[in-house]
């Protein structure tokens, strides 16, 4: 095709270049013969036909169903125990604490919930607290924080962001950490002890390290630098309104776990996605010898220092004990979803095979003629 | 418009009147009149829109006048003013980007315009001032200045030619840069002006500036010291237009009449067609739907929010107190700002980027048309021209094609075939010797083989030689090849240099050449004397007294000449219908037979008549003509009246037949268009018989086609009143074509080639005007309706004897008929401009009748055959591309925003965004924009070759098939399905947020990131599934976008960004990827989202391949048939039978 054009081209040139009469007008505008400009770029033209999709469906089915079964089994093997200790029901041990709650009571209200484990919990056991109907994802709430203050910025420490309003200052002093999230830090204390057959109690060690994201603990959250004594660092600030103690005294047992880098605080600061959520509270490490389960079968007592009011907004508080697998906590959804999707694929594969078989002889040969 | 009005106001009283008076050389003309120099605008051309100072405000104002930009500006302002969930940056940044890019582009274009303006305005010109030549900058020329222009210079303003260096007081001009016509045009000096311009004292009265390049009316008063003032008429032949170039003339002097922005060139500057495509209408409809969705979403959320807040303890729990300001705000004001906040939160559903992408697609996509080398025509050395990129997709939607005949279906390359003198047929045969190249052939006529009398022969040939406006191209002058005619190689006088003719119409050249074959050669026009060489090789001279120009209404032209012998003769040539009534009736019959036979053979026929004018007759005619020419107002009408008066009582001497060959592949192209479901209407000014035979030759009418005729002839058959007959005929045809036809199911998409009867409809101009503007008001709309219905049921319609305006009328009628079908007009001449402008898509052919059609068209192609690829391949692909682009954009933003909407139900209707601001901003700009742009530029769901081979594929996209509510619903449902899937998939996963194997939990930003990741991958892979044509560019942008998303997410979450208030995404993405569950859920959701599409693609499959496979067989059969036919001459067996019935 190109050659024929060239041949004609010569003629055209001969007559076209007759004179300088219209140099601008008569200029040749022959388009370039490149693959791109002629829309002839080499191209792969895949066509989805029953023939190509069929095996894919079978393969997906064959892969998804085992994965789903694996996930389902894994999820089922995860042991989980939930205890609601809000104290709505008068029979509940925490009923009194819940009913008599007042913000300015100095004496902490303590209640104990007894529960039984029918099955031993093996491996590391994770202790969560769960809240319901608590809108940590409310916009006013989510934005009510100052990340540069939490990152140790000294200017923000004494002059927190406007976003923290109305938890920005108290008595003309800047609040550290400021904002609604920090102010509402979950402050119930949960303690767990095993009730021995002889009714004596063995307290269970609850580890508070490793409950927050590593990057949060080490990079995102930082105490203001300058002095190792946090009291001095935070001296020009005041504690959040609802807190009982200042931020540098959050963990009396471990000085490295105070200030903004307190792990309970960091966990709380990661706002939950949905109004019903759980947050990691403590870890019960598996026993060293691996012979005895971490939490053997038996009766346990959960001692709660009831500080956190939820009834005012119709909330619930739970304590959750859970083992963990490679896929995280117990969640049958993934397993079921995978099995379902896998089965659907498989069924579709069969249907398609039927269609393919019926129309197959024609549709395979009927590719677009190029 | 505004500027003109302003000019008028500023110009004072002088400019308000209908004419302006110009003092040539600024010389006061009479002592009695006080000389007040009238004010006109200066000669500065300002094509630029902006100056350095007003660029920013003016450009911003222009941009925000667009409704979309304004909407986004409002959203942005709401974000700035009201406390909204997303920062103003999320919508401000894209808007800023769009505005900046547009501003830069417009600024650059304006800078170029400034540069071009300066070049023109600062160009040095020579002006005669007080008898001296002074050099000036072009912009300083004033009206009335006498300007000197030398060869090859362009005229700096509109000038009246006063003096030329050529002896015959003419000059040659090309208007290539004005209208693209590169032939030389002759302009004349005003007669009787003095050679000494210094002492010339004259005024010019002329009309106010108007944009028509070919019209000018004026009058010049020349004052001489001791005589009465002379008055000379001025016409377009005296006016040299700014922008035209002087050729073949050493220098000229002219007086400036229009300057600067009042020149005809400047007045023609604006006037780009403002056509909007059907796709754009669909987009607007969809936008409205989405706007409704947006508003209802916001309303639902606002009302739910207040319902939710009214419950105990939810509005303001202890952990989440309101600020003092919030508490103080009025409840209703708060409701309103909440509503606005929701609007802002969901506004991404109507993205800025869609406008940008659509614009970009159209702009870049149109290059493929001008780049296409298949459109390159080696003869004129030009390819296709795209005048607007707004209508690319419209090319894929055409339902009605209106085509001109001459120059479009036919080549407009005329060849003299035969003539008939006094009833005897003469046919020129090349085989004979040239000296005796004049022989008589035996026609079907029962006449004996004999010649007409020698006298008549010679009279006829002289008439051919004299009655025209052809110029002889000077041998010395350098002219380029692509003129109206080629060089004439048939040279009976070898001693002479090659002779070329220049004429406005190729018919005339053909006739002059025809006469040459018979021994009469036109030698040229020298100072009003026409010279011809007769058969005896003697030179005869005739003084040209008047030319009664051709016009399409009169359909004839005449010359009045005076022979050496002193006889005054009028020669007239024109269409038979316009000549026959003006000649003696007894002469008509003998010639009519020939004319009709020639016409059925597809030749263009002209009749030649003459009349000898007595001295008194001439004196009268001369006076009337001069008077009419001098008229300032209604000159056209007056001239016409005089012409009609003069051209009466002539005697018919003969007729000519000129062949206009069919364009290359005209038949195949028409067949392909019909195969593609388009209805082809031929609108021509030509005779019915000629046009009909062309239609047969183009296979528009076929052997089996039943012709329904509605012409003056059929109307007169019954002998009753025309109106009654028209009514009866319309009813009868309606019954035949509409009522008896099987009910049409699929509209245009129905197959034509089925067994049912094909109808062809023929109507002529007179009948059409009877239908369009009948005297009886009541039946008018009914007639029109019947006519339209009949036409719509015919495969082809032929409208002959059409005036240009009637062509537009027909296009308009069809355009506004039920279902508002998309129309396309194609033509090459000035008479097609009106229909080109009227139709949805106007195509100009770069033909021989000048460039007016091309200038006014939306697309211009060199040949008719290119129309096939333009529509079937380019149009189809552009339509599919843009339709997919639009649907995809709405879809991807629906499933982008739906999860955010659903999230409101779980965050207390607090307008908490689900995605981080960076994701909200970048989604449409970076993550998902490039793949769809690449798709919309490169996709060929069916390759070009297949599209060209199977015209029927065009029907698959007919009637806006991909942008109707059905497909829109499909995409919307898909978007909703996927949005639901994304959100609830993640929701179920987050029923236990402990997703990491170390027991740590994920927060709301992880939730959003998971949904967003699924979203980006799904919409990109969905596009990948739809892509049928994977070039390396597609691979690059699709996989590149996904890689970029991953890379960006790592990068964005990897650093504590000092300028961010909140480090929301810090390591969120990395942590997400460390969770196996997140991986699993992402894979699952992507797969599940794509499942419906895969299934549909597979289930749709078994049908179409078979359908497509069948087509090649059909069309290849048709192809061989048509290729055979195209090689044949115009005359075809199929209608030779037909033609017998006519005679």
UniProtKB/TrEMBL annotation, chain A:
A GO CC term attached to the entry: transport vesicle membrane
A Pfam family: CDC50
TM ranges: 47-73, 333-355
Native source organism of the sequence: Chanos chanos (Milkfish)
Encoding gene (name): LOC115807552
Residue ranges of the region described as Disordered: 1-32
Family membership noted in the UniProt record: Belongs to the CDC50/LEM3 family.
Record-given protein name: Cell cycle control protein
Principal location: membrane
Any one Gene Ontology BP term: phospholipid translocation
TrEMBL record, chain B:
Source domain of life: Eukaryota
PROSITE patterns registered for this protein in UniProt: ATPASE_E1_E2
Binding site for ATP: 404-406, 508, 550, 573, 604, 684-686, 801, 807, 831-832
E.C. numbers: 7.6.2.1
This protein's GO CC annotations: early endosome; endoplasmic reticulum membrane; plasma membrane; recycling endosome
CDD domains hit by this protein: P-type_ATPase_APLT_Dnf-like
Annotated membrane topology: Multi-pass membrane protein
Domain P-type ATPase A: 123-264
Comp. bias regions, Basic and acidic residues: 486-500
Pfam families: Cation_ATPase (PF13246), E1-E2_ATPase (PF00122), PhoLip_ATPase_C (PF16212), PhoLip_ATPase_N (PF16209)
Disordered as annotated region, ranges: 481-502, 1107-1126
Active site feature: 404 (4-aspartylphosphate intermediate)
Keywords: ATP-binding, Cell membrane, Endoplasmic reticulum, Endosome, Lipid transport, Magnesium, Membrane, Metal-binding, Nucleotide-binding, Phosphoprotein, Translocase, Transmembrane, Transmembrane helix, Transport
PANTHER family in the record: PHOSPHOLIPID-TRANSPORTING ATPASE IG (PTHR24092:SF38), PROBABLE PHOSPHOLIPID-TRANSPORTING ATPASE (PTHR24092)
Family in the record: Belongs to the cation transport ATPase (P-type) (TC 3.A.3) family. Type IV subfamily.
Protein name: Phospholipid-transporting ATPase
Species name: Chanos chanos (Milkfish)
């Amino acid at each position: 095709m190109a050659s024929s054009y060239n041949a004609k081209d010569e003629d055209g040139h001969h007559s076209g270049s007759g004179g300088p009469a219209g140099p601008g007008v008569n200029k040749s505008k022959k388009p370039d013969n490149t693959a791109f400009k002629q829309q002839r770029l080499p191209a792969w033209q895949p066509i989805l036909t029953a023939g190509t999709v069929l095996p894919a469906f079978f393969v997906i089915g064959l892969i998804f169903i085992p994965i789903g079964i694996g996930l389902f089994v894994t999820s089922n093997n995860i042991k989980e125990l939930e205890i609601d200790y809000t104290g709505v029901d008068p029979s509940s041990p925490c009923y009194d604490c819940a009913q008599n709650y007042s913000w300015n009571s100095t004496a902490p209200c303590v209640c104990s919930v007894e529960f039984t484990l029918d099955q031993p919990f093996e491996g590391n056991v994770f202790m969560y607290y769960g809240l319901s109907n608590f809108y940590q994802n409310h916009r006013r709430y989510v934005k009510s924080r100052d990340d540069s203050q939490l990152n140790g910025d000294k200017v923000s420490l004494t002059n927190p962001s406007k976003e923290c309003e109305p938890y920005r200052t108290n008595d003309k002093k800047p609040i550290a950490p400021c904002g609604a999230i920090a102010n509402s830090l979950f402050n119930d204390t949960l303690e767990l002890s095993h009730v021995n057959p002889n009714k004596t109690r063995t307290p269970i060690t609850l580890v508070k390290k490793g409950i927050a994201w590593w990057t949060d603990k080490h990079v995102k959250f930082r105490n203001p630098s300058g002095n190792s004594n946090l009291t001095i660092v935070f001296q020009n600030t005041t504690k959040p309104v609802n807190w009982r103690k200042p931020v540098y005294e959050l963990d009396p047992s471990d000085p490295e776990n105070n200030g903004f880098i307190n792990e309970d605080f960091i966990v709380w600061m990661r706002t939950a996605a949905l109004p019903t959520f759980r947050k990691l509270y403590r870890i019960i490490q598996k026993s060293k010898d691996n012979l005895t389960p971490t939490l053997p079968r038996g009766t346990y007592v959960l001692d709660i220092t009831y500080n956190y009011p939820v009834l005012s907004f119709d909330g619930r508080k739970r304590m959750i004990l859970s083992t963990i697998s490679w896929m995280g906590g117990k969640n049958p959804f993934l397993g079921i979803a995978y099995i379902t999707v896998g089965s659907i694929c498989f069924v579709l594969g069969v249907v398609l095979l039927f269609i393919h078989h019926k129309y197959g002889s024609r549709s395979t040969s009927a590719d677009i003629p190029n | 418009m505004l500027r003109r009005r302003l000019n008028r106001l500023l110009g004072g009283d002088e400019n308000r009147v209908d004419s302006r008076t110009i003092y040539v050389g600024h010389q006061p003309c009479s002592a009695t009149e006080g000389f007040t120099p009238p004010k006109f605008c200066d000669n500065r051309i300002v094509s630029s829109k902006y100056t350095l100072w007003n660029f920013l405000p003016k450009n911003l104002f222009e941009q925000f006048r667009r409704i979309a930009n304004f909407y986004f500006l409002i959203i942005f302002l709401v974000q700035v003013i009201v406390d909204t969930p997303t920062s103003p940056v999320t919508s401000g940044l894209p808007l800023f980007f769009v505005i900046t890019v547009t501003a830069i582009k417009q600024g650059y274009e304006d800078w170029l315009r400034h540069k071009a303006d300066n070049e023109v305005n600062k160009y040095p010109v020579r002006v005669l001032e007080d008898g001296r030549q002074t050099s000036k900058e072009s912009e300083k020329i004033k009206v009335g200045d006498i300007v000197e222009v030398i060869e090859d210079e362009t005229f700096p303003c509109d000038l009246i030619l006063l003096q030329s260096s050529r002896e015959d007081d003419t000059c040659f001009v090309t208007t290539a840069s004005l209208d693209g016509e590169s032939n030389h045009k002759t302009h004349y000096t005003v007669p009787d002006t003095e050679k000494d311009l210094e002492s010339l004292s004259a005024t010019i009265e002329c009309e106010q500036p108007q944009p028509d390049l070919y019209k000018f009316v004026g009058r010049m008063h020349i004052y001489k010291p001791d005589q009465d003032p002379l008055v000379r008429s001025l016409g377009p032949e005296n006016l040299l237009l700014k922008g035209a170039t002087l050729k073949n003339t050493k220098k000229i002097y002219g007086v400036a009449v229009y300057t600067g922005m009042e020149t005809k060139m400047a007045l023609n500057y604006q006037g780009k067609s403002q056509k909007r495509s059907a796709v754009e209408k669909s987009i607007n409809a969809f936008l409205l739907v989405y706007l409704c969705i947006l508003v209802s979403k916001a309303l639902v959320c606002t009302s739910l929010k207040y319902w939710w807040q009214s419950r105990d303890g939810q509005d303001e729990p202890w952990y989440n107190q309101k600020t003092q300001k919030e508490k103080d705000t009025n409840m209703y004001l708060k409701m309103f700002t909440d509503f606005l906040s929701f609007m802002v939160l969901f506004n991404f559903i109507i993205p800025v980027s869609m406008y940008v992408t659509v614009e970009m697609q159209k702009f870049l996509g149109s290059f493929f048309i001008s780049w296409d080398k298949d459109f390159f025509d080696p003869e004129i050395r030009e390819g296709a021209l795209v005048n607007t990129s707004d209508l690319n997709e419209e090319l894929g939607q055409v339902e009605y094609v209106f085509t001109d005949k001459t120059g479009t279906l036919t080549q407009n390359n005329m060849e003299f075939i035969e003539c008939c003198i006094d009833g005897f047929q003469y046919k020129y045969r090349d085989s004979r010797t040239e000296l005796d190249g004049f022989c008589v052939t035996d026609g079907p006529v029962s006449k004996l083989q004999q010649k007409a009398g020698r006298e008549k022969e010679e009279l006829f040939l002289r008439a051919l030689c004299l009655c025209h406006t052809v110029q002889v191209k000077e041998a010395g002058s350098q002219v380029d090849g692509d003129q109206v005619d080629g060089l004439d190689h048939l040279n009976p006088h070898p001693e002479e240099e090659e002779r070329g003719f220049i004429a406005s119409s190729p018919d005339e050249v053909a006739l002059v050449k025809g006469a040459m074959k018979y021994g009469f050669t036109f030698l040229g026009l020298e100072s009003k004397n026409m010279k011809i060489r007769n058969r005896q090789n003697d030179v005869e001279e005739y003084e040209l007294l008047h030319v009664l120009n051709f016009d399409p209404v009169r359909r004839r032209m005449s010359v009045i000449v005076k022979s050496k012998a002193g006889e005054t003769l009028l020669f007239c040539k024109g269409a038979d219908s316009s000549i026959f009534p003006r000649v003696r009736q007894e002469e008509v019959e003998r010639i009519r037979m020939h004319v009709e036979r020639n016409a059925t053979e597809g030749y263009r026929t002209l009749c030649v008549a003459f009349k000898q004018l007595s001295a008194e007759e001439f004196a009268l005619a001369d006076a009337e003509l001069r008077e009419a020419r001098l008229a300032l107002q209604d000159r056209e009408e007056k001239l016409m009246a005089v012409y009609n008066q003069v051209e009466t009582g002539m005697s018919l001497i003969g007729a000519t037949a000129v062949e206009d060959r069919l364009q290359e592949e005209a038949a195949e192209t028409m067949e392909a268009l019909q195969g593609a479901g388009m209805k082809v209407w031929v609108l021509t000014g030509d005779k019915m018989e000629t046009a009909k035979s062309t239609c047969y030759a183009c296979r528009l009418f076929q052997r089996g086609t039943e012709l329904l005729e509605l012409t003056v002839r059929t109307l007169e058959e019954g002998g009753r009143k025309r109106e009654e007959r028209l009514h009866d005929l319309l009813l009868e045809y309606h019954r035949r074509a509409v009522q008896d036809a099987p009910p049409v199911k699929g509209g245009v998409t129905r197959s034509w080639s089925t067994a049912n009867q094909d109808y062809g409809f023929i109507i002529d101009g007179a009948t059409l005007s009877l239908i369009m503007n009948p005297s009886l008001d009541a039946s008018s709309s009914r007639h029109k309706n019947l006519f339209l219905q009949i036409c719509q049921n015919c495969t082809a319609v032929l409208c002959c004897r059409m005036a240009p305006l009637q062509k537009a009328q027909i296009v308009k009628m069809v355009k506004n008929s039920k279902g508002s079908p998309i129309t396309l007009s194609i033509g090459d001449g000035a008479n097609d401009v009106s229909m080109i402008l009227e139709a949805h898509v106007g195509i100009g052919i770069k033909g021989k009748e000048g460039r007016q059609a091309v200038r006014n068209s939306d697309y211009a192609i060199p040949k008719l055959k290119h129309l096939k690829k333009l529509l079937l391949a380019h149009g189809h692909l552009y339509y599919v591309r843009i339709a997919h682009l639009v649907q995809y954009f709405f879809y991807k933003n629906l499933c982008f925003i739906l999860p955010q909407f659903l999230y409101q139900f779980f965050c207390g209707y607090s307008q908490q965004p689900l995605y981080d601001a960076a994701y909200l901003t970048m989604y449409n700009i970076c993550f998902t924009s490039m793949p769809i742009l690449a798709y919309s530029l490169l996709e060929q769901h069916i390759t070009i070759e297949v599209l060209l081979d199977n015209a029927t594929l065009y029907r698959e996209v007919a009637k806006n098939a991909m942008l109707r509510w059905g497909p829109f619903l499909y995409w919307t449902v898909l978007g909703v399905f996927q949005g639901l899937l994304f959100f609830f998939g993640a929701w179920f996963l987050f029923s236990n947020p402990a997703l990491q194997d170390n027991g740590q939990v994920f927060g709301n930003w992880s939730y959003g990131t998971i949904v967003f990741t699924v979203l980006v991958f799904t919409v990109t892979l969905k596009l990948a599934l739809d892509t049928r044509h994977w070039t390396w560019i597609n691979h690059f942008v699709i996989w590149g976008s996904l890689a970029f998303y991953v890379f960006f997410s790592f990068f964005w979450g990897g650093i504590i960004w000092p300028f961010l208030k909140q480090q929301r995404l810090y390591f969120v993405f990395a942590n997400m990827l460390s969770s196996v569950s997140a991986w699993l859920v992402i894979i699952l959701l992507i797969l599940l989202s794509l499942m419906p599409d895969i299934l549909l693609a597979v289930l749709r499959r078994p049908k179409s391949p078979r359908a497509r496979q069948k087509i090649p067989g059909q069309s290849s059969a048709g192809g061989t048939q048509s290729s055979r036919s195209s090689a044949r001459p115009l005359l075809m067996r199929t209608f030779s039978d037909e033609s017998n019935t006519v005679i």
